[in-house]
Amino acid sequence: MIRITDSPRHAGIIVKATKDDLEELYNSLYILLEKLDMRADGQLTESTTSVRMSSLCYDIRHAMPLEEDRPPVKQENTPLPKNVLSFITGKPVGLDASPEDEFATDDTGDDEDDDPELYALSGNTLCEFRLLWPEAIFICFVLNIYLGNYALLKNRKSLKGIDWTPAWVSVRKFQVLVIECLCNTVIPSKSKSIKNLFMDNLWAPFDYCTHYIDSLAIEYISLTPEKRIRLLGLLPSKTTNKGRDYYLLESRVTASARHHGVPVWEIDTDYPEEVDW
Asked: Which of 234, 213, 249 is nearest to 52 (CA)?
């Protein structure tokens, strides 16, 4: 199961899941990428939105351990280890421990990760990756493109019937979990309008200047946790309502890309080296 929570200082989301769950999400995202962006020559069409989808896939892939890093699966007739991982908590438990010991917290009193639905069994490691809130919100809007609206799902041949596949359901579930986490984090008065924005509008960022999301993210993480919470409820509308700041930045990025002879998505944005999550 995938679990998404707000980071301690409201900088972004923390995504936790088993390796198998992340692998399913990764493969599902790539299937949707192929359905919409695959060219006749077998290469993916690059755009500002497909680059962001690829970036999400990169984060997921690098959150998963390499095969050689995975703990070995116990074979029959091999000696039992001194500790096994609890089915309830995912933490090491001595073989002589009583069932009550599985619910005991450690000396620090921090049992935030003792989630019975997220556990690390041998061969299926618990993984984690993080996204800044402005990026996570934008990704949810980008997913509207790849999940498709009613007309696109009905009329585009490559997408017909995809909303009845496990891949589509997996990606939609991830999108819903992010939005649910957002609505549970913002001040209550903003929650309903945010949910309506995603449910009713189905706005999709075609040809969007994603450097604006980078600028929002840099501004956002420079704030105190208290100010982040106040701004967080405004980020979805700031993303969709392109104002003067957006068009000024888009003009500068386009001019820079033209000057260097590269696509706009190859113009880099410098982020701070450290984030106070």
From this structure: 213
CA 159 to chain centre: 23
Helices (H) and strands (E) in the chain, counts: 10, 5
Residue from 61, 201, 226 nearest 140 by CA: 201
pLDDT digits (tens, 9 = 90+) for 12-29: 999 999 988 999 999 999
Would you give the DSSP letter of residue 202? -
Burial degree of 23 (CB within 10 A; 0-12, 13-18, 19+): middle
Evaluate whether 226 touches 171 at the Cβ level (below 8 Å). Answer: no
How does strand 92-94 pair with strand 83-85?
Answer: antiparallel
**Rounded (to 5) percent helix, strand, coil in the chain:** 55, 10, 35
pLDDT in tens, 25-83: 999 998 888 877 665 555 666 777 888 888 898 899 988 876 544 444 343 443 434 44
Q: pLDDT, tens digit, for every residue of 202-223? A: 677 778 888 999 999 999 999 9
Can you give the pTM of this predicted structure? 0.75
